[in-house]
Amino acid sequence: MNVLSASHINKYFFEPEKFQVLQDVNFEVKKGEFLSIIGKSGCGKSTLLYILSTMDTDYEGLLEVNGQRLTGLPQDTLAAFRNEHLGFVFQFHFLLPEFTVLQNVMLPALKLGKYSNKEIEERAYEKLRLVNMTEHARKQSSKLSGGQQQRVAIARALINDPAIIMGDEPTGNLDKANSGLVFDIFRQISHENGQTIITVTHDPDFANGSDRIIEMSDGRIVRH
Ligand SMILES: Nc1ncnc2c1ncn2[C@@H]1O[C@H](COP(=O)(O)OP(=O)(O)OP(=O)(O)O)[C@@H](O)[C@H]1O
Fold first, then answer.
1. pLDDT of amino acid 219
2. Which residues pair with 7 in a beta bridge?
3. Is the distance from CB of 136 to CB of 148 less than 8 angstroms?
4. Distance between the two ends of the chain, CA-based, in angstroms?
5. Ligand 1 test: best mutation among 10, 11, 12, 13, most atoms within 8 Å of CB?
6. Residue minimizing CA distance to atom 29 of ligand 1
7. Which residues of the chain carry a pLDDT beneath 70?
8. pLDDT at 160 (0 to 100)
């Protein structure tokens, strides 16, 4: 079953001059697949991920996620869709430094408004267990190491049980050992929970360990 389908995606930038950054990009991603998108700097990976994540709506083509056509939907509908169905892990964790680990992880679920506070706390602990961070739950997030903060960011991305977790260089700021931990968590999420992972990465170990690689060059897919 396809969880994401991108058809004939074209994208242009107009500054400083008109430039086609994505050229007829087509691919599908199956439920539970762990996919890495690779390619030289500037080939359009982040631009593509930004479109797949529904944050950029200024493109040609068609994007479907979870069987729903997302192209053309209004921004507030897309924002609600993202919070419920997509999880994000970036190179920099973007945790709220003054908040505790637990509060950071709970936030997207509080925003969703689907569960009671008690249920949300239980879910947050369940996700923190998955990333082996329960013992740090009551600590202020700024007091953690970079690798620990990234694991908390993954727990936060998982709190609403998203169908797809999107990563933009999730190991880009980590050493080898912490990169390995993040990779293992992603693999577990996809292989055991059936959640789909789509990551842009420059990390060869991470890409080679994933189920499938899409390679881009000059705005096109050249291998998939
Ligand atoms: N807002 C923008 N306006 C104009 N050009 C842009 C804009 N954002 C990105 N670009 C250009 O589009 C191209 C693709 O950028 P993108 O960030 O998608 O590449 P990338 O493959 O993710 O690179 P990296 O691996 O370095 O992150 C680059 O030539 C970049 O300079």
1. 98
2. 62
3. yes
4. 17
5. 13
6. 42
7. none
8. 93
ipTM for the whole complex: 0.97
Helix (H) or strand (E) holding 217: strand 212-217
Rounded CA-CA distance 189/187 in Å is: 5
Distance CA 98, CA 106 (A): 14
Residue 52: what pLDDT? 97
Query: What 8-state DSSP symbol labels residue 138?
Result: T
pTM confidence score: 0.93
Q: Are 66 and 85 in contact (CB under 8 A)?
A: yes
Matching CATH number, 34-57+74-223, of 3.40.50.10990, 3.40.50.620, 3.20.20.150, 3.40.50.300: 3.40.50.300
Q: In this structure, which residue's CA is closest to atom 13 in ligand 1?
A: 42
Say if strands 164-168 and 196-200 run parallel, antiparallel, or are unpaired: parallel
What is the model's pLDDT at position 86?
95
For a mutational test of ligand 1's pocket, the pick from 38, 43, 52, i.e. the residue with the most ligand atoms closer than 8 A to its C-beta, is 43
- As given in the structure block, the two tokens for residue 201 are 């990465």
Q: Measuring from each residue's beta carbon to the nearest atom of ligand 1, which residues come in under 6 Å?
A: 13, 15, 21, 39, 41-47
Q: What CA dihedral angle connects 67, 131, 109 and 81, to 10 degrees? A: -20
DSSP state of 58: -
Residue type, 116: S
